[in-house]
Every structure is written in structure tokens, then in C-alpha cells.
Amino acid sequence: MTDSKPRYKTYHHPAGGWGAAAATAKVLLEQSVVTKGSRALLAMNQPGGFKCPSCAFPDADCKKTLDFCENGAKALAFEATKRRVTREFFEQYTVSELMEKSDYWLEMQGRLTEPMRYDAASDRYVPCDWDAAFAMIGSHLRALESPHHAEFYTSGRTPNEAAFLYAIFIRQFGTNNFPDCSNMCHEPTSRGLPPSIGVGKGTVVLEDFEHAEAIFVIGQNTGTNSPRMMTNLVEARKRGVPIVAVNPMPERALIRFAEPQDILQMATFGSSPIASEFVHIRIGGDLALLKGMMRVMFERDAKGEKVLDHEFIRAHTVGLEAIREEVLAQEWKDIVEVSGVDEAQIRRVADIYIRSRATMICYGMGLTQHQDGSRLLQQVVNLLLLRGNFGKPGGGISPIRGHSNVQGDRTVGIDEKPSEEYLDRVRDVFGFEPPRAHGHHTIESIEAMHDGVAKVFIGMGGNFVRAVPDTERSYAAMRKLALTVGIAIKLNRGHLVHGRDALILPVISRSEMIHTSAGEQFVTIEDSMSNVTASRGVLKPASPDLLPEVEIVCRMARATLPDSKIPWESYIHDYDLIRDKIAAVYPEIYSDFSEKIKNPKGLHLDVPPRRLVWPTPNGKANFLLLPGLEVNVPVADPTMLRLATVRSHDQFNTTIYSYNDRYRGVYNDRMVLFMNAEDRSARGLESGSRVTLETICDDGVQRRVDGLTVLDYPMPRGAVAGYYPELNPLLPLGYYDKISGTPAAKSIPVRVVT
Ligand SMILES: Nc1nc2c(c(=O)[nH]1)N[C@H]1C(S)=C(S)[C@@H](COP(=O)(O)OP(=O)(O)OC[C@H]3O[C@@H](n4cnc5c(=O)[nH]c(N)nc54)[C@H](O)[C@@H]3O)O[C@H]1N2
Ligand SMILES: Nc1nc2c(c(=O)[nH]1)N[C@H]1C(S)=C(S)[C@@H](COP(=O)(O)OP(=O)(O)OC[C@H]3O[C@@H](n4cnc5c(=O)[nH]c(N)nc54)[C@H](O)[C@@H]3O)O[C@H]1N2
Ligand SMILES: [Mo]
């Protein structure tokens, strides 16, 4: 913990600009990576370089020499740090002692350097060579009564080549248990969109920003979580394109932004206004807003105005009439109450949408992390279909993905519910019969651990126990396991909450070079807009004892499946051989992969709705109904507040870079609760009071977090926000979207107890 005192003050400057430049310089300095880091920064997101390990937003057209952003630089600095976690470090601390340290402290210890094994007698991690580590994994997995007793997690930084082979290895082992970070993130996109438009991905590409006539940014904190997208928003704004931001928090960068790469703007301390409409939505109020907008359209259509694209609707869609009837049955009074937005603004926003001939709707966790997240996204599609916003430049749906390769991992087989088509291809290409029964998503994997069914957990990246809901229960579930394996670059909580046996396996990171007997290798990454590009590290690995993720997968496979006919050893050395197999399993999108990836711009994976082709069972785009206005089960408790757990500006998921959240004016503190001043005084609280939050849930478990400082913040009434992962103990395991399994982390029903 930093020893400075907490400070709270309103941030008056634009987001980005000199503040961002200064923060970038500071973080590079602190991690002692100035020269090394600057060299790496020059190679980041450039042809021949590596892909930024931070977010999944695509790169601009390489026009700029320094196409990076503050948070990309932070992610890189924390990877390229000079600090090291060595065997001497592990000698110094027992695991119980390490458990007392904060996540921030663990992160600051630096890069892992060699494989370690848990020794129960001393309660310490001790060195263990790679062969012994793989042998331990193999013997645990082979000893299981059923392959379904193991859980194989993936976090979205893992590149395509490693993820593809991991999926093959695990299926040859015999299970589809693939809990994934996507299960907590954009799974509603992957599961909700296919019944609507036939694909579980976004339909826009970067150039669409140049053609859009209106852009909606719903439930996404762009300036912090996808800063490179700010460039596109600023450019669109300069063209006079209306941008509508829908958010319960007036996120600074969505209101005003100075572009760090625009030297003139920085020299003059200028900034561009971003949103032309800021819609201050209640938490979970988006469905009511969308229905309000649709209601305006149907009302005006009934008066004979040309607000619907009838030609598109007739040619491409099914189901309009049921939607029209249901939407017109919603009363304005209810729409206004549930959304928290007045009718005049809804009409204004609908008018912006109606006037635009090409609209993009971008969204993030503010839409996905609700109990009906998947079906909510289908309503976003409904709105887009009404004006034919597919298959034309500037129109479409744009999920802004999180991890840099989370979409790619899904594409190449990390999927607990794989399609029959994929399984048949795996059988034909690799010559074994893969399991057909669906496996566990993240929540189901924790339930299986809890019930004593799961015995082994392997984490390919990520920080599973910190990312998942119900912290205490999830810790207890992990501790029941026979073996936990953390494949990682940094020490994290997931290595300390472990099974009877436990391994930490350190890997070569995104920014570092991979050399094998066949020469230098590169990996590939798919961004949020389906572009696949090569990523080649430029730095020397943090330690000579690190392995690439591909090699770890292949050697786990060899140790577990000694009779496997798959040439795992060859894949360790030559990644083109892996890409040839990806092409064989996915010929429609990945044909000639090894050739096409030589193009510095990579390849774009086909997204059929862009061509007005709908791979749905009826071959049409479907208007789908979500009755009513609520996306969460209503709670009849007048003391209830809806809690959104969000990211600060200085964290990457469970990695805490600092205790500051500059744009929200919070310094040296993460245990805060953003609250509307009227909600605060209604509870008899002073600004700055310390409170406890308690979850409202009828499953008999008490969930509380103490020591939260209440901050006055322009939240809508009834809505509060605080930081993830500190508030994960409040999120019940059973509180999730049933279609996708995604925890409803943006709408936890809580009350204040003092
Ligand atoms: N620097 C940095 N970059 C990141 C990450 C990071 O942690 N740090 N994480 C990466 C990952 S994995 C992901 S998934 C993305 C996440 O990026 P975001 O989707 O931006 O994620 P969050 O910070 O969780 O916040 C989502 C936004 O939703 C708003 N919100 C909350 N409830 C509602 C609601 O009911 N309706 C609406 N309309 N809005 C709501 C919040 O106020 C917040 O602005 O970013 C990725 N990029
Ligand atoms: N309450 C609440 N919970 C949430 C969310 C929320 O908004 N609210 N958001 C959810 C979302 S969107 C997501 S995506 C999940 C994130 O869940 P995870 O993806 O599991 O978590 P991260 O914090 O991104 O994982 C960080 C760890 O990954 C390892 N790592 C980093 N780079 C690499 C690499 O190149 N290779 C390997 N093998 N390991 C690497 C590091 O050791 C680091 O400690 O959390 C979810 N949980
Ligand atoms: Mo995410």
C-alpha cells in the first residue's frame, strides 16, 4: 500500500493530453524501463513489432510513429519491469505471509523467473524444474476418474497458436471444460448475437468510424479501457458526428478529451468535446432507453414519417410486428422511471438516431454484465435493424472487447459449448474423436470445485480467483482441489489460493522474443474487429528459464497423453505448422493462413452480416423479444441500491497499477463508494463516512464489505459504484445471465449498513 493519504478532488481538465503523457513517463520511470521501455514502445503495434498487451481495440493504419496510449504504455511497463520474483523471494515468505499482502504489492514484486512448486511442509513455493512440473501435471490428470474432473481456464492474453493447441490437447484428453475470462465479459455478445444476426462478433471495422453519421457509446469507459478508440471518436466529432454516451457515470473522457498524439492540441491546452448527448442512465436502465427510442420510431412511423428502413426490414428480417406491439405497450411513465431519462431526451436521442444514415453502436461491460445481458444485446440489434444499419459503411454493432486476444481465443476453439461442425473438423484433421458433451463455463467450474467434483485447475494466464464472483466461496472452492496450476508472467492471488499441490509456471510475455530451433517465432492476435495480425516481441525474455505458452501446452499434452499421435514436438519449434492446422480446422475464415499473415496488415476474418448474409437457422436477421423494461430481477426493498463494480484508470483487471483514479478524482484509495448526494443524505450519512455494504440476496449467505468511504458523485439516484475486484465478495455466484453465464457485476443489489 502506498503510505500517502487518500485524497478526493474533482478532475477539471480534459482526459488524455498532458496528464496522460505525464502519467506515461512516470510509470516507465517507476518500473525502471525508460530506455528498454521506450524501444519497446516504438515497436508496439507497428508492423514487425508486437501487439499491445492491453486492450483489444484495433490499431490505426500505422500512420503515426507512436501509436500507443497511456494505458498501453502502463501495461507494457509492468511487463517490461526490471523487478524479479526469484527463488530467494519465495524463500523469504511463506504462502500464508504472502496471502497477507495486497494485490498491488504482489504485482510490484515483478516478473516470475522460474517454475515453482508448492511445498506443504514449509508452506513455501520451492524451485522445480520444467520436466518435473510437466510430470506432475501429467500424473494428476491421468489419475482422474474422469477427464471432466479437470477445469482448464483461459485468459484473453493467450495468443491464437497457444489457445488453438490448448483446445486440441484438452479435447483429446476428453473434456469441454473451458471456463474462460470471456465468461465474465463479452459472453453475452458471443451467445446473444448469433440468434439475432448469426455471428457472435461485432460487424464494424475501423474505417466505419469515418463513415458513421452517429456513434453511440453505451456502458463503456472508453478513455480508460480502450484509449486508442478516443482518436476515432475525436476525429468523428471533428466531422460533426453526434456522439451519444450512455452511462450512469459521467466518464471524463466521454465528455472532453485532449488527444495525447495531437501535438497542437496539447501545446494549446485545447480539448475536444466528445459527447453531444450524455445520457445519464440508471444502472440497468438501458432496456427502457432502447425501448423508448423504438417507441418514438414506431409512433412516428404510424404518422407516416419515413423513419424505418422498410425495404431492409422486408428483405432481411423476421419478427418486426411482435416487437412493435410490445414496445408500443410500454407506457412513457414506466420508460422514464426505469431508465431515469426524461422523455424529451429520449426523443432527442431517437431523433439523432433517425437522422443518421449510418449508426454504430459501441458497448462494453455496462451492457453485458446484467442478469439479462445476452437478451439486452438483442435489443441493441433490434434498434439497428429498424434502420438497416448493417452491410453499409459506418453502420453496425461494435462490442468493444477487453483482453487483447479474448476474441481470438474463442475463434480458435476455447469454448465450453463447441459447435458440432468444429468438433467434426477436429476429428478429421487430428484423427481422434473429441468429446461432444458441453463442458463448464466459469460459474459451473466453481460449482464443480465446490461440490468436490473438480480436482484439477489449470489457468492459462489470468487471475481466476480474483476475477470471479463470491470471493470467499470461490477461495474455499479452489482450496479443495488436488492440483492448481498458474501459467503466468506475474505473481498473483491465484497462486496463493491453491490446491494440495500447486505449480507456478512463468511464461515469455507478449513484448519478448521467442526463439526455437527453427528460428524466431511470432504469434497472432485477433482484435475486437476481427483483424488477425502477427505479434513479434522485441525484448529479451525476463529470465532464461521462461517458456513460451505454446511449448507449455505441448509439453503438458505430451506428459498427459503419452500415446497421442499429434506431433506436439514439431509444434514447439515451428508455429507455421500450427497455423496450417488452424487453416485446416477453419477453412472458411483461415484458408492460407501462413501465407496471408505475411501481409503486415494481417487478414480480416469474414463477418457475414457485413455482406448482408445471416448465418441464422432461418437465414434472416431476427427481431427478438425481451418483454418488459427490466434486465435484472427487481428487488422489493426500498433500501436497495444497485452497485456497479468498475475499473479505475490505474488498473488492468486484477492488476492494480496504483491507487489513483485520476479522471474520477480519487487518489491513494480504492475502497470508495461513488454515491448520489441525495441518496447519501437520505441515509443520514456525511460525505466521507465509512460504511459497510451488504448484498441483498435470499440464498442464506451473508456477503459484506467493510470500510468503504462514501464519495459524493454524480450518480443517478439508486445507483452506486465501486471498484472491482475489491467488491467481488458482494457478487453472489448465482447472480448471472443464464444464457451466457456472465456474472451481473454491474447491478448487484446492495444496502448500506452502518
Ligand atoms: N486500462 C485498462 N484497459 C482495459 C481493462 C482494464 O482493466 N484497464 N480491462 C479490459 C477488459 S478485460 C475489458 S472487458 C474492458 C472493459 O471496459 P469497460 O466496458 O469500459 O469496463 P468497466 O470499467 O467495467 O466499465 C463499464 C462502464 O459501464 C458503466 N455502467 C455501469 N452500469 C451500467 C449500466 O447499467 N448501463 C450503462 N449504460 N452503463 C453502465 C460504468 O459506469 C463504466 O463506465 O476493458 C479492457 N481494457
Ligand atoms: N466484479 C467484477 N468482476 C469482474 C469484472 C467486473 O467488471 N466486475 N470483469 C470481468 C472481466 S471483463 C474479465 S475479462 C475478467 C478478467 O479475468 P482474468 O483475465 O483472469 O484476469 P487478469 O487480471 O486480466 O489476469 C492477470 C494475470 O494474467 C497474467 N498474464 C498477463 N499477461 C500474460 C501472458 O501474456 N500470458 C500468460 N500466461 N499470463 C499472463 C499475469 O500473471 C496477471 O497476474 O474479470 C472479470 N471479473
Ligand atoms: Mo473483459
TrEMBL record:
<dbReference type="InterPro" id="IPR010046">
    <property type="entry name" value="Mopterin_OxRdtse_a_bac"/>
</dbReference>
<dbReference type="InterPro" id="IPR050123">
    <property type="entry name" value="Prok_molybdopt-oxidoreductase"/>
</dbReference>
<keyword id="KW-0411">Iron-sulfur</keyword>
<dbReference type="GO" id="GO:0016020">
    <property type="term" value="C:membrane"/>
</dbReference>
<feature type="domain" description="Molybdopterin oxidoreductase">
    <location>
        <begin position="111"/>
        <end position="484"/>
    </location>
</feature>
<dbReference type="InterPro" id="IPR009010">
    <property type="entry name" value="Asp_de-COase-like_dom_sf"/>
</dbReference>
<dbReference type="InterPro" id="IPR037951">
    <property type="entry name" value="MopB_CT_YdeP"/>
</dbReference>
<dbReference type="GO" id="GO:1990204">
    <property type="term" value="C:oxidoreductase complex"/>
</dbReference>
<keyword id="KW-0408">Iron</keyword>
<protein>
    <submittedName>
        <fullName>Formate dehydrogenase major subunit</fullName>
    </submittedName>
</protein>
<keyword id="KW-0500">Molybdenum</keyword>
<dbReference type="Pfam" id="PF00384">
    <property type="entry name" value="Molybdopterin"/>
</dbReference>
<feature type="domain" description="Molybdopterin dinucleotide-binding">
    <location>
        <begin position="641"/>
        <end position="748"/>
    </location>
</feature>
<dbReference type="InterPro" id="IPR041953">
    <property type="entry name" value="YdeP_MopB"/>
</dbReference>
<dbReference type="InterPro" id="IPR006657">
    <property type="entry name" value="MoPterin_dinucl-bd_dom"/>
</dbReference>
<keyword id="KW-0004">4Fe-4S</keyword>
<dbReference type="GO" id="GO:0043546">
    <property type="term" value="F:molybdopterin cofactor binding"/>
</dbReference>
<dbReference type="GO" id="GO:0045333">
    <property type="term" value="P:cellular respiration"/>
</dbReference>
<comment type="similarity">
    <text>Belongs to the prokaryotic molybdopterin-containing oxidoreductase family.</text>
</comment>
<keyword id="KW-0479">Metal-binding</keyword>
<dbReference type="GO" id="GO:0008863">
    <property type="term" value="F:formate dehydrogenase (NAD+) activity"/>
</dbReference>
<dbReference type="InterPro" id="IPR006656">
    <property type="entry name" value="Mopterin_OxRdtase"/>
</dbReference>
<dbReference type="Pfam" id="PF01568">
    <property type="entry name" value="Molydop_binding"/>
</dbReference>
<keyword id="KW-0560">Oxidoreductase</keyword>
<dbReference type="GO" id="GO:0051539">
    <property type="term" value="F:4 iron, 4 sulfur cluster binding"/>
</dbReference>
<dbReference type="GO" id="GO:0030151">
    <property type="term" value="F:molybdenum ion binding"/>
</dbReference>
